[in-house]
Design brief:
Layout (H helix, E strand, L loop, with lengths): L23 E7 L2 H4 L4 H11 E13 L2 H7 L5 H5 L9 H11 L3 E7 L1 H17 L1 H6 L4 H20 L3 E8 L2
Parallel strand pairs: 1-2
Antiparallel strand pairs: 2-4, 3-4
Helix pairs in contact: 2-5, 6-8
Amino acid sequence: MRAAGLSDRVSIELCDYREARGEYDAVVSVEMIEAVGAEFWPVYFRALDERLAPGGRAALQAITMPHERMLATRDGFTWIHKYVFPGGQIPSTRAVEECVRDHTGLTVARRDAYGAHYAETLRLWRERFTERADEVEALGFDETFRRLWTFYLAYSEAGFRSGYLDVHHYLLTKP
């Protein structure tokens, strides 16, 4: 923001959503909801609602899965829970929209899906990651870590390509 000459108009704060204070015209949340865990979704959405000024907007990017799959897998424990996102839960669009409706005064003004684009992004990340294995190793990440991360990126790419996973951009508005 400083380089763009906007530091007098923009405030960026990196903090836990539960510790955020103040009132904001806009909030951006990228793939946070998956990490907080389903039991904290109401708290997460209330925090967005409480931080937004009247007329404010929140942009939310969320990885999603079909509602029936979310319900069927929510009590499972996978290697992703163990190694990548402990305590995480991928929501469905229905879960997001019900939580917004039931726990906030916010409105879902728009939702757009980008799963096919995200699959391609994951492919590019995986290719660049594997091409730079020597640089990753020089940073202190061993072969086990590199294999796990490569598998995670390929696994996620397959999830998006098959339609099992999607990524949505939401626009939430506060009256």
